[in-house]
User: Fold this.
Amino acid sequence: MEGHLIEIYQRLLDHFGPQHWWPAESPFEVCIGAILTQNTAWQNVEKAIKNLKNNGLLSPQGLKDIPVEELARLIIPAGYFNVKARRLMAFIDFLWAEFQGSLEIMFSLDLASLRPDLLTVSGIGHETADSILLYAGGYPIFVIDAYTKRIFSRHHLGPEDTGYHEWQHYFMERLSPDTKLFNEYHALLVRLGKEYCRKEPRCSDCPLSR
DNA sequence: GACCAGGCACATC
DNA sequence: GATGTGCATGGT
Assistant:
């Protein structure tokens, strides 16, 4: 495997094709999905999002005054439903308190000021914040997740440090700040991870090794 | 039935 | 500052 990130990207794109991320109908749905998918299979998240949709609740207005218990009940399939209901509410409260419930207003901020602002929301960590920024806001920020670290570590690439910021810096100092590129790259890494680089069994026949 | 999934906050040392 | 633990469903 070549060390140049753009060559790895090209290989993945050739192998898998475009992934069309994020799988959502709206930026708001991306935000909700980003929280719901924390340490959870996407398949389960889809069920929870469907529940919210079917009840007409998948909007800042729809979730504004919902009791947290009712929200928890609706997102049961996504797992950790009590925790995630609180996290969703924290994000909704934040959205209304700071941006009048408008993602458009929120995303009018600069990346440099919005990212730390998002990180103050309880339940939004680095990966969730960056997923929201990239896939809902369209900012050029590279998302680091468990697959990314696992894939690159197994190929003896990436920083020695396991810190989020170090990994993000590794990618962002080697790639031009291109939203479309960052979007597709991370999606491809998740695809690769799911199919060839799960925890167990160890990856075999990885497209990057051929 | 064990193991895992597109993390995060909090406790404890 | 590093490491450990709780959170929970559904697929393999």
In short: Residues 33-35, 37-45, 79-80, 83, 87, 122-128, 131, 143, 145-148, 186-187, 189-190, 193-194, 198-200 of chain A lie near DNA strand B (CB under 10 Å from a C1').
